[in-house]
Amino acid sequence: MNSHRTRDRLFTALAALAAACISLGGTARTAPDAPPVLTAMQEELDRSKAALEKADPAAYFLSYTVTDRQFAEVSGSNGALLSSTDTRARWLEVQTHVGSYQLDDTHKVGDRQTAASSPGSTVPLDDDIPALRRAIWLETDRQYRAAAQNLIKIETSKEVQVETAESRAPDFSKEAPHVSVDEPVSIHVDRRPWEERVRKYSSAFSASSAVLNSISTFTGLAANQYQVNSEGTRLSFGQIRYRLELFVQSKAPDGMDIDRYANFDWVDPADAPDDKTVLARIQVMIREVEALQKAPLVEPYAGPAMLTGRAAAVFFHEVFGHRAEGFRQKDIAEGQTFSHKVGELILPEFLSIRDDPTEKRLGSEMLLGYYPFDDEGVPSENVHLVENGVLKTFEMSRSPLVNIPQSNGHGRRQLGYVPVSRQGNLIVSSSHAVTNAQLRQMLIGEIKKQGKPFGLLIDDIAGGFTFTGRGQPQAFQVLPLVVYKVFPDGRPDELVRGVDIVGTPLISLTKILATGDTPEVFNGYCGAESGSVPVSAVAPAILISEMEVQKKETSTDTPPILPPPLHDSQARGKKP
């Protein structure tokens, strides 16, 4: 395909768009009481659709998303205020798909990397419909030009590329339209009390000479999302989130960094943790840091291990969850660990896993991965991924697979990224559950059975990462924070440090022997191809017959020569 044809196509399309731009008028299909921003989006969508669906190449799908974010943040360190801000902004994202649902400008050819970022722009905060429409019009023009050029490159590349079974799936799924218009949400944060609280919390860490640095951060977010698309979807919904984070840094005598982290999440201001609760958690973190400073290092080891609930939740998120994201089954550059295992046993028969972003809470704890609609305008769904150990399906966005043609509401992204299938609330359940005390006894029994000198109890995990690309080992690494040696002869558990959990998924998942009976929640933010998104993972404690740990990366920098000023008796004029 030559450049002359490229220019002809773009000229035809731009001429059609220019003709439609003569008048900014239009008839909105939204209800009279719709938010003005939604009205502006619908009017401009109708106008652009009428022009671009006749263009060459034709735009068969248009989608507009405006996210209105009200954000407050207060941060303190070591008893002093670092920052206190309150901002509001609107961000516009435009999707223009040219070609057809079967083959469009998003098609991935071979191992060519597609852009992860999604061009967008800020739009006015004022509910000024003409001003909003003008911003949408300009962004639509930019996105259409880029999409048209990309489709031409794709059509050329396909002629010389080998087509795989996965690539024969349509590029985009046609979905039923959804209409839901809710009242906007907002937050009203008085930052002054939180300024005092973050000072108090970060100062409380200074009571220990083991602490090198401490940070406490409060955030409040009200996000209203407005979506319209050419299939007829029209959405307006909002979510409120509050979070308090505590972070402390220390260093062992050999230079190894020691970090502890805790967070509190809530949606109702009345549910904010009180000072007593937070200060009690700080004391626990201080004791852990002081103990970890003195704890011995663990040599590389493979043997029985027990993960408490939060640690097990992170384990399943990293080892299973990322490999069950639908887009990874379609991308030839991915390892596709589970792509052809639907209907096969991949876990012990007593385990089932679902991803349910429709759940707001588990008991008294909120689930951070809740959302009513995904970032492609599809309602969130409870997806049963594994039933009795058998893989059933994947988390799907609007990028279909050959045998899974529709989205199940898991297309997610951070602002400024292209949505892909991502986890929401990953929930593990078990039909072979015992009490945690019984599970510990089973751990000791397994240590004796294998003739090992000890087993490991993984009590807390910071997070982890997993390699899913075909050019890398299909391995995972999970980063424990609190680990104990458990001895078969009844000696007290020994706190240790310096280990990372490593392994490969197909082997590690089959070595789970039993679970506890109490599910625990891990709330966090997961970073992947479409940016950082809020997620939850829920799991009971698990017993694994064999888990491998390796030495943690460390620093050669030793702790500071002098003690902290507040703990230097000579600096205070006292005898040592």
Which ranges are low-confidence, i.e. pLDDT below 50, for 5 or more consecutive residues? 1-32
Average pLDDT reading: 88
Q: How many β-strand stretches?
A: 24
Helix content: 10-25%
* Integer-rounded radius of gyration: 27 Å
Structure, described:
The protein is an alpha+beta fold and 576 residues long. The protein is built from nine helices and 24 strands. Strands 1, 2, 3, 4, 5, 6 and 7 form a seven-stranded mixed beta sheet that branches. β6 and β7 form a beta hairpin. α1 crosses α2, α1 packs antiparallel against α3 and α2 crosses α3. It is globular, with a radius of gyration of 27 Å. The N terminus is likely disordered.
List the helices and strands and how they pair.
Elements: H1 3-20, H2 36-52, E1 59-77, E2 80-98, E3 120-122, H3 129-158, E4 179-181, H4 191-204, E5 213-229, E6 234-251, E7 257-266, H5 275-294, E8 301-307, H6 309-319, H7 327-330, E9 351-355, E10 361-362, E11 365-366, E12 383-387, E13 390-391, E14 411-412, E15 420-421, E16 425-430, H8 436-450, E17 455-466, E18 476-486, E19 494-496, E20 499-503, H9 505-508, E21 512-515, E22 520-528, E23 531-539, E24 542-551
Parallel strand pairs: 4-6, 8-17, 16-23
Antiparallel strand pairs: 1-2, 1-5, 2-3, 5-6, 6-7, 8-24, 9-12, 9-16, 10-11, 12-13, 14-15, 17-18, 18-19, 18-20, 20-24, 21-24, 22-23
Helix pairs in contact: 1-2, 1-3, 2-3
